Amino acid sequence: MRGLVSIEPIALVSLKPTWLMAHGPATPYPEFDRWAIENWASLNNAISCTVQPPLVVRSRSTSRLRCFLLRIMRFDLVTLFPDFFESPLRSGLVGKALQKKIAEVLITNPRDFAQDKHRKVDDEPYGGGVGMVMKPEPIAAALDSLPRCNRRQVIYFTPQGAPMTQNLFKELAHNYEQLVLLCGHYEGVDERVMSLVDREVSLGDFVLTCGEIPALTLLNGVLRLRPGTVGKEESLKAESFEEPLLDYPHYTRPPEFRGMGVPPVLLSGNHPAIAHWRREEQILRTRDRRPDLYQPIPEYPSHPPFVTADQWRVIKQVVTILETHQIRYQITGGLAGNLYGSTWPLQDLDLDIASTDLDRAYQLFEPWAIAPPDRYLDVEFDLILLQLAIDGLMVDLSADQPAYALRGQKRISLKTDLSTAHRTRCWGLPLWVQSLKSLIDYKKILGRSTDLANLRQLL
Questions:
Q1: By three-state DSSP, how is residue 38 classified?
Q2: Which of 110, 129, 236, 283 has the most beta carbons within 10 angstroms of its beta carbon?
Q3: SS3 for 267?
Q4: Which one is predicted more confidently, 28 or 176?
Q5: How far apart are CA 101 and CA 456, in angstroms?
Q6: pLDDT band, very low/low/confident/very high, at 117 (cuts 50, 70, 90)
Q7: For residues 290 and 333, is the Cβ–Cβ distance under 8 A?
């Protein structure tokens, strides 16, 4: 069987004539059924040796056989500008997929099928008008020259086509083994070419100079859905448009960049809370950025798992008032710890606010205020405090300065800095939260060893 390497691929059909007649049409190529199975290793070796690298495959019969036996998807690009595809098809995941034989790409130039000495592929439109129209004969001849796999689609790219969508990519990736992508130019192609086209596709409601750009887009979108192209196929399930939702925000190191932090929940290690935050961000992004995609989503629990429904209602009320009136604040204490992944029971709501905003806050919260803002002194703290009681939850609004922690005879400045607060969102509520580093420093000053150990595990 090693001699097969030097034999023209089409001669494979005639090597075992007695076996060819023994089988019915179990596949699109019944003559290869038993012979291919019994000689799989040698046949695979022969095919691999006779086929040229991607973009320059010339043997029509070999390519058909490879697509069927090796389950390789075939893309035929019919274009006047083959060089357009050289770099994109050798780069990134697409280039690696072609090297791994997940698919193969072949390029056919209609100009090679032009009949006149100038190899002309366009002409003036009948009826007059601006621009040129691609002639039907070179295109038809180019399409006719291609092998025809059983599950094949010929796609032409035009602004009049159906919009390119993720669902289209999935349909083409799962239902077809050959895609012929016809790239137009000038004012388009002669309308009679449409009789050879199965589907018209548009990249969007705009006009480009050529069809190669949408063709490359479709090839990329389809190929990445083929098994083996993307390393972790689970990542395909959480992308934009896999549901009628956009993707959630992504963050990586460093934890702070130009004064912008990472949402605390992503640092928490609390995987259910992270999953909920991501889902929530998908919903909010879709609603705000693509209302045309937004659909009502089944309701989530009305509050985070670390607070009760009544506590969450009060938290939303307080934060909404502060945000609406542009009062600088940051959430501290137990709620901040819970947002970072701790499991402290929420006994009260602690917030730092700018001392210059304290009187204005008192005016806004006066119906719930226990007393006007005043100095608060106990065995741990010496600070200016506005205490509220709202529906059974104690809310402490502490001025950012002066503020001290008391350790025996020592008065240690807490050095509250509202500018280091992190912006995040929890259950749809935008929040300013004390940074994890500041929260750890705060617990260190107070000597809260248990809380400190808990928070350090979150770093």
A1: helix
A2: 110
A3: helix
A4: 176
A5: 48
A6: confident
A7: no
Contact 177, 69 (CB under 8 A): no
Report the distance separating Cα 55 and Cα 103, nearest Å.
11
For 73, 178, 215, 226, 442, the CA distances from 219, given in Å and listed in that order, are 11, 11, 6, 11, 54
DSSP 306: T
Provide the H-helix boundaries in 325-378: 333-339, 358-365
Task: Report yes or no: 384 and 399 within 8 Å, Cβ to Cβ.
Answer: yes
pLDDT of residue 69: 52
Question: How long a stretch of residues is the chain?
Answer: 459
Token duo for residue 390:
């709202």
**Residue 211, helix vs strand vs coil:** coil
Residue 100 in contact with residue 49, Cβ under 8 Å? no
| Bridge-based pairing state of the strands 348-353 and 329-332 | antiparallel
Whether cis (ω within 30° of 0) applies to the bond prior to 402 is yes
Torsion of CA 399, 401, 402, 408, to 10 degrees: 80
**Token digits for 244?**
């009628």
How many whole angstroms separate alpha carbon 425 and alpha carbon 321?
16
Backbone angles phi, psi at 81, to 5 degrees: -130, 75
Q: ∠ CA 360-427-454 to the nearest 5 degrees?
A: 90
Across 409-443, b (16+ Cβ under 10 Å) vs e yields eeeeebebebeebbebebbeeebbbbbbebbbebb
Q: Is the pLDDT of residue 236 over 60?
A: no
